[in-house]
Amino acid sequence: MSYGVVIAEDFRMIREIFESAVDGMEGYEMRASFATATEALDFLEAHDADLVILDVLFPGSMSGLEAAEKIKKKKPGIKIIIVTSMPELSYEKRAKEIGVESFWQKEVQEQPIREIMERTMKGESVYPSKHMKVTVGNAQSTDFTERETEILRELVTGASNKEIAEKLCVEASTVKMHISNMLQKTGYHTRLELAVKARTLGLVIND
After folding, report:
1. Which sign, positive or negative, has the C-alpha torsion 167, 172, 176, 177?
2. What b-and-e string marks burial along 51-64, b requiring 16 or more CB atoms within 10 Å of the CB?
3. Where are the domains of the chain?
4. Which of 101, 141, 160, 167 is the most buried (most CB within 10 A)?
5. What are the tens digits of pLDDT across the range 30-88?
6. Rounded to whole angstroms, how far apart are CA atoms 85 and 79?
7. pTM for this entry
8. Fold for domain 3-121?
């Protein structure tokens, strides 16, 4: 018996690395490989697979997490590994909510992708034990509190303090305080600079 694998990764070099990993594993076979999650989802409408490896972001296409949710609803028996190079922590949270078995950070690579695949197919759920660190001005991404990160995620949309407060059910003065704290930590001078840097670094992504 061999496990059929489908890959969706927009970066060709990484896609080829995944393909090579599958080809080099006994008991695994490539069923299909695509540059978008939409193509992978279309393929799975008509074909079976045991494991799907999905990147998170696909420019101009549905996200890997959106595809994973659709796959789990239609074919819950398919196991999924989400992969990303972004430090955005909300991706892991959403993946767990959807029921994605495993999550692999390209930049951290605590374990080789082959090991993640094998553990996943044995019934394990493998998520990172540590998270990517990115430098944000004078701070590290891990220096931000959970609430600061929530506010920062809304800030990158251009929302005002009042709008952020309403969204998160807190006082506008609380939002202002947290933004001030983040500016102090990073050394940035304006909320715009903070938002632009956070979005550019992939620290928070609000699609």
Report:
1. negative
2. bbbbbbbbeebebb
3. 3-121, 135-200
4. 101
5. 999 999 999 999 999 999 999 999 999 888 889 999 999 999 999 999 999 999 887 77
6. 21
7. 0.74
8. Rossmann fold (3.40.50)
